[in-house]
From TrEMBL:
It comes from the Eukaryota. This is (S)-ureidoglycine aminohydrolase cupin domain-containing protein. Residues 15-88 form the (S)-ureidoglycine aminohydrolase cupin domain.
Amino acid sequence: MSIIIEHNPSSIKLSDLGVMSWPKWSCQPGKYALVFEETETCYLVKGKVKVYPKGSSEFVEFGAGDLVTIPKGLSCTWDVSLFIDKHYKFDPPTSL
């Protein structure tokens, strides 16, 4: 279960994905415990964060200009060092 980061995707790719029409979410610097119930794709407009998967001392870092895919089922702590402003979307739930 890994986070996928694409640094500085092209404006064409962002447009094709419709990123600027996705909802926005923001948060102040601090630590946040999060659980992703669905796969999330997000584009960071501002900010910087280190993500620590639950039970691990390893982290993944990403920030402004990154297109990120966070897998369904990930429990983690976000250690936000710079104010986060992002567009995001969740993949639709899959039926069993």
